[in-house]
Design goal:
about 350 residues, alpha/beta, Leucine-rich repeat, LRR (right-handed beta-alpha superhelix), eleven-stranded mixed beta sheet, five-stranded parallel beta sheet, binds 2-acetamido-2-deoxy-beta-D-glucopyranose, LRR_dom_sf, repeat
């Protein structure tokens, strides 16, 4: 799957519950707006007070408030989505008292601070949790592993610190895990090898943190189907086991780490389109197999590679910066090898 197809797939997944509800009520009831549930309204008023959401006006039906969506049948709040807003404060624990919430989406709120409250773990229906581009801090809570229906978890672009909780691998339906652009330390948990193996391994976005150590061998037993982005950390050692002819991963970014392994004998997944290995300590030569791939991006610059760049495929379509700053790579688009 290409990126666009992949995001379509996500969009369909995301809209599916609403689509089903919609299709099952094509009759007059469709035009009747759901009437706000009294219990939900009480909780929403607590959230309004905690975050100073001035646009939520008590006299108006709460299902019509900005950022809210109610189930057409039950009229319970199923989605809370607030973007690009200057609301300030912490995520109020009251959010955990919206028991039918499926989507919690709060992003680009520069004044949203503090930790993720444990009350979030009460949201057993939650499938989509996106809290990116805020100023949240504290740990990535291990209680998130209790949200068994989650298929999308995005905490990127915040100030989360501490290590990645191993329990996240207990989320059986996860399709994507975004923890990138935080201040996370420690290792990638060994338990991540326990994610579902074939076709259902979540895309992993862990870039721009301060993760250290080797990546767990067990990740090599999984078939990632989209992306592995571990760039800009301090990860070290071997990563060659992420590759292999029969793997299904499409995008691999390991750039700006301390990886150190021999590239010469690595076999790449046949459908992989993006491979960024720049700024590591990778040695050996570029394998011939690269010319058989439909690569859209290749960058092996700033490593310790040697020998002739294989001639063919897409390899000469990248400019010399894709290859420069290695020990002794040569041949187009770099200068010819010395005879
Ligand atoms: C709430 O927001 C309004 C409008 O943005 C602002 O005038 C007011 O000072 C805020 N109140 C608090 C307690 O932050
Ligand atoms: C609609 O709501 C009623 C009462 O809450 C419930 O019994 C029924 O299963 C719901 N139907 C659907 C399709 O969700
Ligand atoms: C976090 O807050 C700082 C100011 O304290 C602001 O400059 C920055 O843009 C905020 N981050 C995000 C992602 O909104
Ligand atoms: C990965 O998927 C491919 C294609 O579906 C399959 O041939 C291969 O055996 C799988 N490998 C693993 C390690 O699951
Ligand atoms: C690569 O893509 C082709 C065509 O879509 C597909 O038939 C094949 O199974 C894919 N290979 C792997 C290892 O996923
Ligand atoms: C490869 O990565 C280096 C280092 O980040 C960058 O300077 C260069 O522009 C990149 N080249 C290509 C073709 O991606």
């Amino acid at each position: 799957m290409k990126t666009s197809q992949y995001s379509n797939y996500r969009a369909i997944l995301l809209s599916l519950p609403y689509l089903i509800v919609f299709l099952s009520f094509p009759s007059p009831s469709q035009s009747a707006k759901p009437k706000c549930n009294a219990q939900d309204k009480k909780v929403l008023l607590q959230i309004k007070a905690a975050l100073n959401i001035t646009s939520w006006i008590p006299d108006i039906e709460c299902c019509d408030w900005y950022g809210l969506e109610c189930d057409r049948n039950t009229s319970r709040v199923i989605s809370l989505a607030i973007f690009n807003n200057d609301i300030s404060g912490q995520i109020p624990p009251a959010v955990g008292d919206l028991p039918y919430l499926q989507t919690l989406d709060m992003r680009k709120l520069p004044y949203l601070v503090g930790e993720i409250p444990p009350a979030i773990s009460k949201l057993s229906q939650l499938t989509f949790l996106r809290l990116d581009w805020n100023n949240l801090s504290g740990p990535v809570p291990s209680f998130l592993s209790q949200l068994k229906n989650l298929y999308f978890l995005d905490l990127s672009f915040n100030k989360f610190s501490g290590s990645i909780p191993p329990s996240l691998s207990e989320l059986p339906n996860l399709l994507a895990l975004h923890l990138d652009r935080n201040k996370l330390t420690g290792n990638i948990p060994e338990s991540f090898g326990n994610f579902p193996g074939n076709g259902k391994t979540p895309d992993l976005f862990l870039s721009h943190n301060m993760l250290t150590g080797p990546i767990p061998r067990s990740l090599g037993d999984l078939n990632f189907s989209g992306t592995i982005d571990l760039s800009r950390n301090r990860l070290e050692g071997d990563a060659s086991f992420l590759f292999g002819k029969s793997k299904t991963v499409l995008f691999v970014d390991l750039s700006r780490n301390l990886f150190e392994f021999d590239l010469s004998k690595v076999e790449f997944p046949e459908n992989m389109t993006n491979l960024d290995l720049n700024h590591n300590k990778i040695f050996g030569s570029l394998p011939e197999g690269l010319i058989k791939m439909q690569l859209q991006l290749l960058n092996v610059s700033y490593n310790k590679l040697c020998g002739q760049i294989p001639q063919g495929g897409n390899l000469q379509s990248f400019d010399s910066t894709a290859y420069f700053h290695n020990r002794c790579l040569c041949g187009a688009p770099l200068p010819p090898c010395k005879k």
